[in-house]
Design a protein that fits this description.
Layout lengths: L6 H5 L5 H15 L5 H30 L2 H13 L1 H6 L5 H15 L12 H17 L4 H14 L3 H28 L5 H11 L13 H11 L3 H11 L2 H16 L12 H18 L6 H4 L8 H23 L4 H14 L6 E4 L8 H4 L5 E3 L13 H7 L1 H9 L7 E5 H13 L2 E8 L12 E7 L2
Helix pairs in contact: 2-3, 3-4, 3-6, 4-14, 6-7, 7-9, 8-13, 11-13, 12-14, 19-20, 20-21
């Protein structure tokens, strides 16, 4: 057995439910004799792509029941062409699966429909099961389902039945099964949602990894995610008058804005909701520009689209497709390319051990290498005492001093991996310890949150 468990698992703030999905996949690959580095790196992405396709299907179905077929088609167009959905939805993040479950759950919740009474009673139970699974995978998903649940409580006529015969038993069953799984994996009873709440909300532990201004999601985060679909989404929100959907987006953005630590992926589950509203605006443009008798034909014929709609489609494609391709295929690819290279070198017995002198979790690590080799990266676990810098921060402040101290106690690695921004100041030191550069990989054209990390450099020990 080999690998690396991050500090979250030691503190018990992560459930094993989401990793178990991919662990099961790895077990199947092992039984089939296909657990090679290539399959181990690619199949999780293919599985997540399958989950994402289910999310696309339910986005279409949700748009269809909320509006009509035309809106559903344009909502799916918006989902498939939005650059951030293209970039993030197929990644094996818990937020990606949470987004799929959110779309599925909203489809089954009566309170999200215009006529809740027309839905079969079992539909709400399915919505509750899916909502409970989403919360088990990511406890912060409760922010979404509290909103939906309160709507249901206001609109339903059988409130006692809803609370005591549906919410309580279904929630308790899913929570109990999740806790049982975590007990089997942790070796003791761990209530992950409670630990997660204590760390991220009561103690603001997430702030250790950086904070943003309260308005960040509105001024930058969500605005960048939805990108050029923003005006269409706003128009769709106003014209459709579906305030339940608009309210859900606002509710999530406001509550996440209260937290100091913010990331794009945290609000991914409501991005498809905003794109549904964008689909409504595009569908209205198609209808307003076409005579009633030709509506059906015009929706299927590009040449009969009204000029404004043609311009909108070209504008959205021209702004999102290049962004999607660049961010997915070019930007910050060096950390993955270097692990693919090292995996091949390790297979040829040319790698004995690796030291990563770069900010923590910068590479895919064992998931791409898939070989039992000693590897070490700089630790960035939150300190119990405020003001204590972790290894990653201390290295970034003074790479030479940190590496010199580390070299006094290290078991000399066969390979050292670092960004070129730090290599410039560490080059002489590495050469003095008999390391030489053997490979360099492109990483990025522009800086993100640190100095420009243009390339990833590999040094090898020469005896």
């Amino acid at each position: 057995m080999y690998g690396h468990l991050t500090w979250e698992w030691k503190k018990g703030i992560r459930s094993y439910l989401h990793p178990m999905v991919f662990a099961s996949l790895f077990k199947i690959l092992a039984l089939l004799g296909l657990d090679t580095p290539w399959f181990m790196a690619k199949t999780p992405r293919l599985l997540q792509a399958l989950f994402s396709s289910v999310g696309d299907l339910y986005l279409y179905k949700l748009s269809y029941v909320l509006f009509d077929c035309s809106v559903a088609k344009w909502a799916l167009f918006s989902q498939l062409t939005n650059w951030f959905m293209f970039f993030c939805f197929n990644r094996t993040l818990s937020n990606s699966l949470e987004t799929v479950l959110t779309l599925m759950g909203l489809y089954y919740w009566p309170s999200m429909r215009e006529s809740p009474g027309k839905m079969p009673p079992v539909s709400r139970k399915w919505g509750l099961v899916i909502a409970a699974l989403a919360c088990a995978i990511r406890p912060t998903s409760a922010i979404i389902w509290v909103y939906v649940g309160l709507l249901e409580l206001l609109l339903t006529h059988d409130r006692m039945k809803f609370i005591f015969l549906e919410v309580v038993p279904i929630g308790a069953l899913v929570l109990g099964l999740s806790c049982l799984l975590d007990y089997m994996m942790y070796g003791s009873w761990i209530l992950v949602p409670l630990n997660f709440l204590k760390f991220n909300f009561l103690s603001s532990g997430g702030d250790y990894y950086g904070t943003h201004k309260w308005h960040w999601y509105f001024s930058q985060g969500f605005t960048i995610m939805i990108f050029t679909f923003l005006p269409f989404s706003l128009a769709g929100s106003i014209k459709s008058e579906r305030w339940k959907l608009s309210g859900l987006i606002a509710w999530v953005l406001v509550l996440y804005s209260i937290l100091g630590h913010k990331e794009f992926r945290f609000v991914l589950p409501v991005l498809p909701i905003a794109l549904i509203l964008s689909g409504y605006a595009l569908a209205m443009m198609a209808r307003l520009g076409s005579p009633d008798v030709n509506r059906k034909a015009s929706s299927n014929n590009l040449t009969k689209w009204p000029p404004k709609l043609r311009f909108a489609v070209i504008f959205l494609l021209a702004t999102n497709i290049p962004m999607a391709l660049y961010m997915s295929l070019v930007h910050q690819r060096g950390t993955e390319d270097v692990m693919i290279y090292l995996s091949k070198e390790a297979h040829n017995e040319k790698v004995k051990s690796i030291l990563f002198l770069m900010p923590c979790h910068a590479t895919p690590y064992y998931s791409t290498l898939h070989r039992h080799l000693p590897m070490r990266f700089l630790d960035c676990s939150p300190s119990e005492e405020k003001g204590i810098l972790d290894e990653s921060d201390r290295f970034m402040m003074d790479p030479v001093s940190f590496t010199s101290e580390l070299a006094k106690t290290w078991s000399r690695p066969s390979h050292v991996v670092l960004f070129d921004s730090e290599e410039r100041v560490l080059k002489d030191l590495l050469i003095s310890y008999s390391f030489r550069e053997i490979k360099r990989f492109f990483h990025a054209h522009f800086k993100v949150d640190r100095d420009l990390q243009a390339s990833v450099v590999v040094y090898a020990y020469t005896d």
